[in-house]
Amino acid sequence: MTATSDLSQHDETLSRLLAERRPGYSLEAPFYLSEDLYRVDIAEVFARYWIFVGTVAEIAEPGDYLTIDIGDYSVIIIRDDDGAIRAHHNVCRHRGARLLDGARGSVGNIVCGYHQWTYSPEGELLFAGTQAPGFDPGCFGLKPVHLREVTGLVFICLAAEPPDDVDDMAERIAPYISPHALERTKVAFQEDLIEHSNWKLVMENNRECYHCEAGHPELTCTFFPTYGFAEDQIPKRLRKAHQRYRQAEVLLAENSRRNGLPCAPIEELSGRPTGFRIQREALDGAGESYTRDGSAASRKLLGAFDTPVLGRLSLHVQPNAWFHFLGDHAVTFSLVPLAVDRTLLRTTWLVHEDALEGVDYDLATLTEVWHLTNQQDAALVARAQAGVRSPAYEPGPYAPNEYQVDEFCTWYIQRLRAGLSVRWAQ
Ligand code: 3BY
Ligand code: FES
Ligand code: FE
């Protein structure tokens, strides 16, 4: 028997919650609090859609691997001897033991710690000791997991049939991201932060900058708090900032054109399985990077850029990731739910592979702004989690500059509805 989602057991409550979702309003409390809904989220979202797990820079050499745990699943992402990246279930085909421990490492082959069955990075069973006559090692390779690399970004999908619209996303975002040449970057720093809130509150918080002005003094040195506002809705107090944005856009457009970089937004955050948004926008200050004054944090620019003044190329992908690609570095964010009210946020700073710490970049300067911003966000979403626990909580209205939060919730509700209708059709 395989573990299934609780959709089948709780169809009625869930379908009522899904049917009653009020667009433009935050979700009902059970979506953030219910253990049952947490299991639904793992089975119907994290085990069905494309999940961002890391970048090629994290597994640069053959044998380098990452492991990622999603609910009760554990997956190995490994670079094989031919340089291809593969994903396998982290489960021995003998009697099921967990194979690789730890979030990352490097191996020649994958050796089970129980009875030493040995698998190649490609997942073939190479050694199984003495077996009964007729034993066919070819039948006991590691179970594969779907993997898709998109210009250096690695996604996995646990579903038997993954959503194929990932191809469309890949095709459309590649011209934006590939000039940043992620295959020629290295990890400068990676930080894991455990947030005390439901994963959806972490995602929702990322999809707006309504809280930035009050909540992120360091980030707003460069990130314009006008984010998410339509031109005619910008409040009076932000008009000066908006003027600076407009001016910065002129130089950004010129630099982008010269460097062959598209900037125009593509926004398809809901209405499709692999919802995404991408756009290049200006940064405040020197316009180069996420530092206090906006100047580059690394002297070795990515790709073949002729200027660091390239603003931020921001990518948001449903359900678990966001990214900022800059002229001098890139920063990736991915989350995995750990419990109904606990979420792991992993942040990775990538610099040019030849950039030397202490010479080309100072690690503290490179990481300071997002390190602090993440801490501030963690405090905000813990506050949100605490609030929605109260019986007095009721869904509240999203402001116009929170429309991407609404899009995230819409995507999520659509996905659960789709899961429910598939189940009912069976
Ligand atoms: O990370 C992002 O995409 C930004 C930062 C602040 C708000 N959010 C839209
Ligand atoms: Fe892996 Fe026995 S469970 S070798
Ligand atoms: Fe924030």
How would you describe what is shown here?
With 426 residues, this protein is of the alpha+beta class. The protein has nine helices and 17 strands. The strands form four sheets. The protein has a seven-stranded antiparallel beta sheet, with helices on both faces. A hairpin with a 5-residue loop joins β7 (118-119) and β8 (125-127). The chain is globular, with a radius of gyration of 22 Å. The mean pLDDT is 96. The chain binds 1-methyl-L-proline, FE2/S2 (inorganic) cluster (FES) and fe (iii) ion. FE2/S2 (inorganic) cluster is lined by residues 92, 94-95, 97, 112, 114-117.
Question: What is the gist of this entry?
Answer:
With 426 residues, the chain is of the alpha+beta class.
Write the layout of secondary structure elements.
Layout lengths: L10 H9 L10 H4 L1 H12 L4 E5 L8 E7 L2 E7 L5 E5 L14 E3 L3 E2 L6 E2 L5 E3 L18 E5 L2 E5 L8 H12 L7 E11 L3 H8 L5 H4 L23 H20 L7 E3 L7 E6 L30 E6 L3 E5 L4 E10 L2 E11 L10 H26 L14 H23 L1
Antiparallel strand pairs: 1-10, 2-3, 2-5, 3-4, 6-7, 7-8, 9-10, 11-17, 12-13, 13-14, 14-15, 15-16, 16-17
Helix pairs in contact: 3-9, 5-8, 5-9
The protein binds 1-methyl-L-proline, FE2/S2 (inorganic) cluster and fe (iii) ion (FE).
Features:
426 residues; alpha+beta; globular; binds 1-methyl-L-proline; binds FE2/S2 (inorganic) cluster; binds fe (iii) ion
Distance between the termini: 17 Å
Q: What number is the mean pLDDT?
A: 96
Major sheet strand order: 11-17-16-15-14-13-12
- How many extended strands? 17
Structural class: alpha+beta
User: Based on CA inertia axes, which overall geometry fits?
Assistant: globular
Unreliable sequence segments: none
**Strand coverage percent:** 15-25%
> How many helical elements?
9
Radius of gyration using CA atoms only:
22 Å
**Main sheet: strands, sense, barrel:** 7 strands, antiparallel
Give the helix level as a range of percent. Answer: 25-40%
Query: How is the quaternary structure best described?
Result: single chain
User: Which small compounds were modeled alongside the protein?
Assistant: 1-methyl-L-proline, FE2/S2 (inorganic) cluster, fe (iii) ion
What order do the SSEs take from the amino end to the carboxyl end, as H and E?
HHHEEEEEEEEEEHEHHHEEEEEEHH
Keywords: 2Fe-2S, Dioxygenase, Iron, Iron-sulfur, Metal-binding, Oxidoreductase
Cofactor: Fe cation
Protein name: Aromatic ring-hydroxylating dioxygenase subunit alpha
Domain Rieske: 50-156
